[in-house]
């Protein structure tokens, strides 16, 4: 076999391959055997039809077509390996010559990973938020815990914001009650915004037994998106009562004996959270600066495929699961279709560029992935997908996705390497030491977000 490579542009090549006919022998034998199992000829047992009879009855062309289809992937792969190419996606193959008994010639155009030059990234400098836990942060944290231990009790007064009302609802469109437009004994917290637009104003000021009507756009059901007249009847009003902030509350809500100990623990927890957020911010900013340093030619077909995949996933998976279409989503986002497409293309370009650059650093720095690192990543992926770890691992193996997970971890480690080499300062001008953080998994999550491959 002979092959030659023609560079069409920095991200696409054309392979020209010539195969002597004798190298098709194995594929020809396989083609005759396959046809033998599929056809019957009077006077011959199935599977025992001579090749000359198959040629006569079904045509030599059918055999050659079967043999070439079988052989092309092998010869294409050999040509790719010989040229040391990194193809992206499937090739566009064109058979240019097929002389029976003499020669097979074909061309294959395919996108390839562009050759990248990774400059010295040790000069990257970024500024992140300082880790500062304020009194307001502590009060908010304790208040959230207090909210979790709130109790409710019936009250004989008009409903007000923060109260929980038990209501019956009935929705009409064009004067007709919808089959799925009636609900009873629905508990709703006034001001939460978790039901229908307009219900807060309707029920505020009503006592048990009071009714009101309002107009609202339905968020789901058979008349989703239509304006409906909603009748609401308040059946009960309950007030939320928060526990007193004292040592007794600390003992009830935590393992601590005093409120001061509870607040001290809140400070430690908030510091850990802010340090993690700081590390994530550092990784995101360092990645942005790294991408600015590297010129990456963009494979147009790969980019188009990535844009289409992201749009399909959004329309048919993310939005489909909540019963929303793209048009409604764009309306809620306040975006035109053109603006959405432009943003999607920009995100896709960033995702591809991130993968190319970090993969190059993986090779340059000889980054390897240990079994423990892969297992930890697999466990996190399983958790975020809602699957059991063993079930997720089985699916990954069956679908041949192990190399993909290894690549994700490797790119996370590559980013952690770049962050370690960069200078990170906080908003107070102090150098931030991120070495004590669990950098690899956190960096992997940052990479996934940039590539758009979050679970």
TrEMBL record:
Q: Which InterPro entries would you find in this protein's record?
A: PPIase_dom_sf, PPIase_FKBP_dom, Trig_fac, Trigger_fac_C, Trigger_fac_C_sf, Trigger_fac_ribosome-bd_bac, Trigger_fac_ribosome-bd_sf, Trigger_fact/SurA_dom_sf
The protein's predominant localisation is cytoplasm
Reactions catalysed, semicolon-separated, are: [protein]-peptidylproline (omega=180) = [protein]-peptidylproline (omega=0)
Keywords in alphabetical order:
Cell cycle, Cell division, Chaperone, Cytoplasm, Isomerase, Rotamase
* Entry EC no(s): 5.2.1.8
Q: Supply the domain comment.
A: Consists of 3 domains; the N-terminus binds the ribosome, the middle domain has PPIase activity, while the C-terminus has intrinsic chaperone activity on its own.
Q: What is this protein called?
A: Trigger factor
What gene is this protein translated from?
tig
């Amino acid at each position: 076999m002979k092959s030659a490579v023609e560079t069409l542009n920095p991200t696409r090549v054309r392979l020209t391959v010539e195969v002597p006919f004798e190298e098709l022998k194995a594929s020809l034998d396989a083609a005759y055997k396959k046809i033998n199992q599929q056809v019957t000829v009077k006077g011959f047992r199935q599977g025992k039809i001579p090749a000359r009879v198959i040629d006569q009855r079904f045509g030599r062309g059918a055999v050659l077509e079967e043999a070439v289809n079988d052989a092309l992937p092998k010869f294409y792969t050999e040509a790719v390996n010989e040229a040391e190419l990194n193809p992206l996606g499937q090739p566009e193959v064109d058979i240019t010559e097929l002389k029976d008994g003499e020669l097979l010639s074909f061309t294959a155009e395919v996108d390839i990973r562009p050759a990248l030059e990774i400059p010295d990234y040790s000069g990257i400098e970024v500024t992140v938020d300082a880790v500062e836990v304020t009194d307001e942060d502590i009060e908010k944290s304790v208040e959230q815990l207090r909210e979790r231990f709130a109790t409710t009790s019936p009250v004989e007064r008009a409903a007000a914001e923060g109260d929980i009302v038990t209501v019956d609802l009935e929705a009409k469109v064009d004067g007709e009650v919808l089959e799925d437009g009636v609900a009873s004994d629905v508990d709703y917290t006034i001001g939460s915004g978790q039901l229908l637009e307009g219900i807060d104003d309707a029920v505020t000021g009503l006592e048990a037994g009071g009714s009101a009507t309002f107009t609202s756009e339905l968020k789901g059901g058979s008349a989703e998106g239509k304006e409906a007249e909603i009748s609401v009847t308040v059946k009960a009003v309950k007030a939320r009562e928060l526990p007193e902030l004292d040592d007794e509350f600390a003992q009830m809500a935590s393992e601590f004996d005093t409120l001061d100990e509870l607040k001290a623990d809140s400070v430690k927890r908030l510091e850990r959270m802010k340090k993690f957020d700081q590390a994530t911010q550092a990784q995101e900013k360092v990645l942005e600066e790294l991408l600015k340093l590297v010129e990456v030619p963009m494979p147009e077909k790969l980019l188009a495929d990535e844009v289409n995949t992201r749009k399909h996933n959004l329309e048919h998976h993310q939005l489909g699961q909540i019963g929303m279409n793209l048009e409604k989503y764009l309306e809620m986002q306040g975006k035109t279709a053109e603006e959405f497409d432009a943003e999607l293309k920009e995100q896709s370009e960033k995702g591809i560029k991130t993968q190319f650059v970090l993969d190059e650093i993986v090779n340059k720095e000889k980054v390897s992935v240990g079994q423990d690192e892969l297992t930890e990543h697999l466990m996190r992926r399983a958790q975020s997908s809602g699957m059991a770890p063993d079930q997720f691992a089985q699916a990954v193996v069956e679908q041949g996705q192990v190399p993909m997970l290894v690549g994700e971890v490797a790119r996370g480690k590559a980013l952690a390497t770049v962050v370690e080499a960069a200078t990170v300062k906080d908003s107070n001008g102090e150098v931030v030491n991120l070495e004590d953080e669990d950098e690899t998994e956190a960096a992997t999550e940052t990479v996934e977000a940039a590539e758009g491959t979050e679970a």
